[in-house]
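User: Sequence recovery, please. Input:
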């Protein structure tokens, strides 16, 4: 085990085993303060190790490790009883710090619900970068508590998806989830919408109406764009959080409400507090647990590609052949800064699906503004001939023109072109390397593929 020596040098007594089954057998005979386990192992996987350690020794802190970090895995590991989750590759110092923290908390282990294995696959949150894995862990912690949550992130990073995931996997899942964009309403409208009103309290109030706080009773209310709230409304929200009561506009009676508040902001509220533009007491009430979402540009090429392919599947029309995207197009996409983050990427993919031909997204299907602003410029594409037959070409020349057409339509993706042509890549590369002379007998496979005949 690669961590055995660094752990011993740090003063820990270490027992190393080769698989999950051996770890469980050893745990039946001896208690351990901390257990580190890989998630993906043959025969007995890491999640089973976590569950058995939880059953055999509830005080043992289990740290799960995997190279396939994802929301689903993070949630399962923690929900099954893991103390924490770390994605490979990791720094040894990072693991040592985590083991130290786990050791310090060994005596104060908390009961963790293991009622069922949860799955975040329907949440819409995609990715396994280190920053996203940390967000997943915090989401899973938040889901099993009643703490007020503050979600921070730029517009389009998926703040509402996080709020919905917390609600979906909390004890409030069967009750309402209500989302409110605070910036879309004036102070008066926001107050009447959230708190409700009584008949005659203002012009147009023709009857009593419950507000959204009351409608969310037993469930969750998500307040987006908190930084746009006026000082007066901040004070009203603080009273709700402190007293768990709301008073309708024009009413003298307060009503008890049992709802969880999740707030979100694309502005640093702590900086606004320092400038006296946001109430400090409300900020501390809202930020009991803070989840930060990284901008798309910080999540890496691999994660961007995962998201792009996810949106290709999401927006494909029912019964439609799966949409492909060329490697060169992904290169250009990865070189764009994505100021609108995940939301902008989804809109771009949806746009490309709508205008692409032959089920392949090429650079020509991307909005011009994205191609122009990408730091990765597309290689010059092979121009498609205007016509294949105008000058009565030879079969060999016709083959060359057809290859050029297919390469143009695939954005130069030779693997995809070979697939469409029904030949292997090696044959395509060999044919492209030929000089302008007519094809010889070695190229009969290519000519036969294009003409539909068999070589003789």
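Assistant: Recovered sequence (456 residues):
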């Amino acid at each position: 085990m690669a961590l055995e020596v660094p752990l011993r040098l740090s003063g820990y007594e270490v027992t190393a085993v080769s698989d999950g089954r051996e770890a469980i057998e050893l745990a039946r005979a001896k208690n351990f303060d901390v257990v580190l386990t890989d998630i993906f192992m043959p025969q007995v996987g890491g999640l089973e190790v976590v569950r058995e350690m939880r059953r055999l020794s509830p005080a043992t802190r289990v740290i799960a490790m995997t190279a396939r970090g994802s929301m689903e895995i993070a949630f399962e590991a923690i929900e099954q009883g893991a103390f924490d989750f770390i994605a490979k590759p990791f720094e040894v110092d990072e693991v040592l710090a985590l083991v130290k923290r786990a050791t310090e908390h060994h005596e104060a282990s908390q009961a963790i619900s293991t009622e069922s294995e949860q799955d975040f696959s329907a949440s819409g949150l995609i990715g396994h970068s280190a920053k996203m894995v940390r967000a997943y862990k915090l989401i899973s912690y938040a889901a099993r508590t009643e703490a007020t949550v503050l979600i921070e992130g730029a517009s389009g990073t998926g703040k509402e998806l996080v709020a919905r995931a917390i609600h979906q996997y909390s004890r409030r899942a069967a009750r309402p989830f209500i989302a409110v964009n605070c910036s879309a309403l004036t102070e008066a409208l926001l107050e009447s919408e959230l708190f409700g009103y009584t008949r005659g309290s203002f012009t147009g109030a023709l009857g009593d109406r419950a507000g959204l706080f009351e409608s969310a009773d037993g469930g969750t209310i998500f307040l987006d764009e908190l930084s746009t709230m006026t000082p007066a409304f901040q004070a009203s929200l603080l009273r709700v959080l402190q007293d768990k009561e709301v008073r309708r506009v024009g009413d003298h009676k307060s009503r008890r409400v049992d709802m969880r508040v999740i707030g979100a902001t694309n502005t640093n509220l702590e900086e606004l507090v320092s400038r006296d533009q946001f109430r400090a007491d409300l900020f501390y009430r809202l930020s009991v647990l803070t989840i930060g979402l990284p901008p798309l540009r910080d999540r890496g090429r691999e994660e961007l590609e995962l998201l792009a392919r996810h949106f290709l599947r999401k927006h494909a029309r029912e019964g439609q052949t799966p949409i492909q995207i060329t490697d060169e197009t992904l290169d250009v996409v990865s070189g764009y800064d994505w100021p609108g983050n995940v939301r902008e990427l989804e809109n771009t993919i949806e746009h490309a699906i709508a205008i692409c031909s032959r089920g392949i997204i090429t650079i020509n299907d991307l909005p011009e503004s994205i191609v122009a602003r990408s730091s990765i410029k597309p290689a010059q594409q092979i121009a498609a001939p205007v016509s294949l037959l105008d000058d009565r070409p030879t079969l060999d020349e016709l083959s060359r023109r057809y290859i050029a057409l297919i390469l143009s339509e695939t954005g130069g993706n030779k693997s995809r072109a070979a697939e469409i042509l029904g030949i292997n890549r090696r044959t395509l590369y060999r044919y492209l390397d030929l000089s302008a002379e007519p094809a010889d007998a070695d190229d009969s496979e290519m000519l036969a593929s294009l003409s539909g005949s068999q070589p003789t």
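DSSP finds 20 helices and 14 strands in the chain.
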